[in-house]
Structure prediction request, 418 residues.
Amino acid sequence: MVTATFLLSAFSLILVGIFGMLTRKNIIRILLAVNILETGVNLLLVSFGYFRGGKAPIITAPISASNLPFVDPLPQALVLTSIVIGLGTTALALAITLRYYRRRRTLEFEPDEEDFASVEGARTLMRDSDDSTSVTEGKDLHPGSNVPSDREPAGAKERAK
Amino acid sequence: MKRNNRLIINLFALVVVLLFGFISILAVTDGRSGLTMFSADLQHRVSYAFLLKSVSHPERASNATVEPGGRDYEDGAANVVTSVVVDYRMLDTFGEVLVLFAAAAGVGLLMTERKRVVEHDASIVVKTAVPLVMLFAIITGAYIVLHGHLTPGGGFPGGAIIASGFILQFLAFRESPKRLIFKILESLAGLGILAVGLVGLFVKGSLFANFIATGTLGATISAGTVLIIYLLIGIKVAAELASISGDFIGGEQRIGG
Prediction:
């Protein structure tokens, strides 16, 4: 059955997206999971308007109240909006991710010790002028907790100067 | 210890996800209380009025006919999805335009002072092909934008295709991609959409009402404000996507490009 195919594929996309959001640490992978989730939701919404043998809702022949061979156009219109909003949130999330990377030098939410062996290699690739470290240089943002990532880039910048 | 934590998190997420999927599929296919999602006829749905173009006069729906070549329907777009998006539910589309604007403004505020690092020039193949591909991209995008009321498409995918032409240009040449002209164009197009809505408010009494005579269904110039609004949306989306990509790629700002 076609509707079973639609339901199955839409729900598998949604469930894969939710699983990815819950279990990944890398921000880019979390954003990818959010995108997959949005695609699944859009597919589910459009599939609610499906009729067997229905055509695309474009009027090319005379139609009347008893002769409506179309699929439902309203979910398609709402999904149009939803796709565009997914684009907007992905763009803004990627911009925030870039700023996060410039500040914390890592793309994960919980960096541990072995990640900082590759920080030196990552810094040679990033030759941007970073104007945001002047705010937190020298300040201990998390007193009492062992978060090395805020102090390490400032110290590394001191060494590089 | 870390690996044990990951296993526990993965298992917990799997259990939550399977539970959610089970409950959702039960909810969607449950038929005990009458209509389910897949058994409702078009007669019972809201789109009945949208398809027969009788939203303002729903009592005429049962003996209305819509045919290509007919004149002066309530909203003269042959593409029913376009008539829903741009005419009947234009307020939702206006909110979507606002969301796009907020995203572009947010990216512009966050991506500041980024010098573009070009390690290699693009190859001669790319530099020769990009002007040709960009020409076809812009023409195809403009066609899709202008025929939004007749064929599938409209302002949003057409604007995205036009923007992809500009993104190709940013990637292939050493031009500075942050241009003020994109942001000016985007703002003017957004103001134009709001102006069309306000004119509809003053002429016909409701925001974004269709105040131009809708003409012949299926003609290129038809459907009143639908054509104008989709044109403005196409310009706005193209300028927005090009400016977002320019902000991500980085470069110094030049006035007017």
